[in-house]
Structure formats: structure tokens, C-alpha cells
Amino acid sequence: MAMDRKIEKQRTPLWKMGLMALTAGLVLFFGYQMLSDASIRTYRVPQEQLIVSSVQFGAFEDLIPIRGTIQPFESVFLDAVIGGAVEEVYVEEGAFVVAGQPLVQLSNTSTRLNAAQADAQTTEQLNTLTNTSNNFEYRRLSTERQILDTEYRITTLSRQKRRFEQLVGDNLISEEEYEAIIDELDYQRKLLANLRSREQVEARERDARLTQIEGQIAMLTENLEISQTSFESLLVRSPISGQLTSFPVEIGESKQTGQRLGQVDVIDQYKVVAQIDEFYVSRVTPEQDATFTLAGVEYGARVVKVYPEITQGTFEVDLVFVSDTPSNIRRGQTLQMELTLGNPVESLLLPLGGFIQDTGGNWVFVLDAEGNFAYRRDIRVGRRNNRFVEVREGLQQGERVITSSYSQMEDMERIQLIQ
Description:
The protein is α+β, with helices and mostly antiparallel strands.
């Protein structure tokens, strides 16, 4: 009888087990890659719609573009010191005038009456003070006259006393007559002492009062001049020589006190008034240079004043021309200029583009080696001009960066470039 044979289960070869494990691992890896790739926010865009620039190393010229307006270097405003109706206009707007030339005559009846009344009152007060001063002088002269009379009387009595001394010794006159002369002489001497004391008191009073009167007269004279000047202010004159601009004045028109009538511009020297973004407020200083081209010729200018006030995101600077001043410029003309903020420095540079407004220079999309994808990367930038931005961290020379606008891909992590 044949015996049953036990069939043993064959073991899987090790090489097959390794192959299966490798296959499973590859499947899991590719599956993970596909799932991970699908989780990355990707924006697909045709390559021709993007601007791709290379990071380069070169000299960074610290320049910024500015737009300036030609203005007169000096302007003087014309205001109505005293309001009134326009009675006569002597010049037209745009005319060239000289200092002191009459421009417009205003009429104000109230001012005329007030000036006349002030003139009369001041004149009356001046006359009163003058009379007071004259009275002090009369009193001085009167006291001096009394002193002279008393001194003369003392001299006469002294001679009589010497003669009476001999006569009374010879019994030619009585003792009573001699004593009367002595008493009279003593009285006149006391009177002279009194008059001289009074003279000193009057002199002190007169000096103090005359000092006050001189001050009052000076004040009244000044008030009279002011009154006359205010009346004369109805005739508006040019304060300087130059060109009369902004002069909207018509005969019969009423002008209020302090109202702007126009301005006179100095036309032999101009300046450039420019508005600059507040981003550069700490970097713009006087004595910095700027250049511009006009009619094919390059000119230079220099910053002379920086206004610290910031209005609507900009601040203002004044520039003057250096060396030659363009002969074909006009007031109000606009110039495109480049302002130099510092000396050229060797730096890592990235061409400026629309991305800078979208990211503020904090991150960019950098292309991979194949140029099929661009990945978001944080960077740090420094100074910028109208062509480049200085790269401080995050990029290497030769890397390619998308520099066009990121307005539709700001929330993306990856950009796929479609050929």
C-alpha cells in the first residue's frame, strides 16, 4: 500500500520579496509625490505673459526719478493792506514792472475820513505838547530873569552899605537908614538863595517832563506817519522789479483788507520745485545733485532746501540750476530729473518691475533650473532706483526671477510656466 506524501509549501524567494517591497515603496513614493504636488497652490500662466529677469552683480547707482516744476526763485505777493474799490488799474497781468511802480489805485471813503480825523487830532495833540514844552522854557527864562534882578539888587545894596558905613560914622545919616540897607541886603541874599533852589527844582521837573513830551511827540509823529501810510496804501505799488503774474483786478471790483491781489516774480533766476515720495524723506538732503535733459542737452541742478512736511505721501524740495541755466525754460514747465542719493556701490541687483508694488520687496518667485516652475522665496532688499533694486538676502547671482506684476498670483506658492 502506497503511503501518502506530505506536500510542503514552497517559500517565496527573497529576491521576489525584495522586488515586491521595492515596487510597493515606489508606488507609495509616487503616490505621496502626486498628493503633495496636488496640495501646492499652483498658478499656471503662459510664459510669454511674464517678465523673467536675471539677478546680476554690478554697480548700484543710487538714483531716483523726480518730476519738478519751474518756478521763480523769488516771488513777492501783493495784498490789499487797506480794502477798497478798484478805482484805476495801471498795468496788465504779465507786464514787467520796476520797484515802486504804481499798479492799482483803490478807493475807500472811510479810510480817507479816518486819516483826516487822525491827522487833525494828532496835530492838535502835538501843538498842545509843543506849547507845554514852550511854557517850561518861559518859566526857566523868567526864573533866570528874577535871579539876575536879585543879583543886581544885591550888588547895588552892597555898594550903598559901604558908603553908608562912612556916612553913619560921620553922623551924616541916621542909624535907622543904615540898618534898613543892611536888612534889605540880607533879604535879597535870602531871596537869591530861594530863587536858585527853585531853579533847581524847576530844572528837574522840566527835564523829566520834557523827556516825557519828547516820547509822546515821537509816538504821535509815528501814529501820524502810520495814518498817512495807511491812506497811501490805497495806491498799491510794486515792491520789487520783476514780472507781474496772477493779477485778477478789474475796475469797480471791491477788495477786502488782506485779500491777495497778485504777485511779482523775479525773472532772472529760476528754481525747480519737486515732489518726492515719502519713502525717501530720510535720504534726501541739501547739496545733493540732480541731472536732466532738455532739448538734447544735459543740465545739472542741486538741492538747496528740503521741506519736512509730508502731504498726501510726498514731500517737497527746491533745486537750483548749477553752471548754465537753460535759456528756453518757462514758468510752470515740467522737468523729468534724476536725483543722486549716494555714490555707486557694487551690489547684487534685480531689475525693477511690477512685483515690487505687490510684495514690497519681501518675496519673489524664483525659477527652477529647468525653467518650468517658479517657487515663492522670501528675500530682503535695500535701496532702489528707477532701474534696479538692491538685493541683500535670499537670491544668488544668475538666478532667474519673475519681475512682472504678481497681482493674480499673490496667494500662490508655485507658478507653472506653460510653453
